[in-house]
Specification:
Layout (H helix, E strand, L loop, with lengths): L3 E12 L2 E12 L3 E5 L6 H8 L9 E9 L2 E2 L7 H7 E4 L10 H12 L6 H14 L3 H4 L12 H10 L8 E5 L7 H14 L4 E5 L3 H7 L2 E6 L2 E7 H6 L4 H7 L5
Parallel strand pairs: 3-8, 3-9, 6-7, 7-8
Antiparallel strand pairs: 1-2, 1-4, 4-5, 9-10
Bound molecules: adenosine-5'-diphosphate and magnesium ion (MG).
The site of adenosine-5'-diphosphate has 12 residues, from strand 2 and helix 1.
Length: 254
């Protein structure tokens, strides 16, 4: 059985002349939550964006090394972007629901990735299952035709997670998914992420040390484009192997 969902080997990335990642070797275990921490600008979002190939939209990004998702090199010629996006879903800092109904938001990805026409009852089932998974069904089941943008930020972010699920991704990438939310929303979305572990491999970027500690099994600390340490979260916070990690965790980087 494949143990690693994401594996990078000697990953180097440049934005034009600026090198943002240096020899990044990562093994992200399947089915657990891994958090990615480090000071602003250290390359966390760059890594996430490389794993679902968003970076390539920018003409001036150059990548060397390899990134495998479930054993397959996603930058190999012949690998289609839609295939990658099917395996790897992404959630952003600010919830970005489409200006459509709640129902159509949930169905959007699925419609994009399948050619078969859905019957009404099949569509309803997809919507119900996905909203159940993100703990929104009971609250929203009678207002599925409302615009998604009318929801609270917390609900919008949960909906943005929900709309990834019908496509059945293996990996969920989350880039500071709670940073636009108030403490109550943060707690609710964290709880949801926790619920999803096991079913998905989750790689989550967070600025919040308490969140990393509470929510993830493993933790990666980065500094200036390099991975400094990758450990079990409990160990990293109690006995960090590097002084840089200790300094960051204890808040000495500002
Ligand atoms: N689109 C871009 N063009 C040029 N430089 C970028 C771009 N995105 C990020 N960078 C630079 O790459 C480095 C890493 O950025 P990023 O991955 O966004 O860091 P983090 O998410 O850890 O805050 C930073 O120095 C940033 O300025
Ligand atoms: Mg970032």
């Amino acid at each position: 059985m494949l143990e690693h969902a994401i594996r990078t080997e000697q990953l180097n990335l440049w934005y034009g002349d600026f090198q943002a990642l240096f020899d990044v070797d990562l093994d992200i275990k399947k089915g657990i939550i891994t958090s990615l921490i480090g000071p602003s600008g250290c390359g966390k979002s760059t890594i996430l964006r490389s794993v679902n190939r968003i970076n390539e939209r920018l003409g001036y990004v150059r990548i060397e090394g390899s990134i495998k998702v479930m054993g397959e090199d996603i930058y190999e010629g012949g690998v289609e972007l839609v295939q990658v996006r099917k395996q790897v879903g992404m959630v952003f800092q600010r919830p970005n629901p489409l200006p459509l109904s709640i129902r159509d938001n949930v169905l959007f990805g699925h419609r994009l990735h399948t050619t078969e026409r859905l019957t009404k009852s099949a569509a309803e089932e997809i919507v119900e299952t996905a909203l159940q998974q993100v703990l929104l069904w009971d609250k929203l089941k009678d207002q599925l035709d409302d615009r998604a943008t009318s929801l609270s930020l917390e609900e919008q972010q949960k909906l943005c997670i929900a709309r990834l699920l019908p496509v059945k991704p293996t990996v969920l990438l989350m880039d500071e998914p709670c940073s636009a939310l108030d403490p109550k929303g943060t707690e609710a979305v964290e709880e949801l992420i926790w619920e999803l572990q096991g079913q998905y491999t989750i790689l989550i970027v967070t600025h919040n040390m308490a969140q990393a500690r509470r929510a993830s099994e493993e933790c990666i600390f980065m500094l200036l484009g390099k991975v400094i340490e990758h450990s079990r979260t409990g160990e990293m916070f109690v006995t960090p192997k590097h002084t840089e990690t200790a300094d960051y965790i204890e808040g000495r980087y500002g």
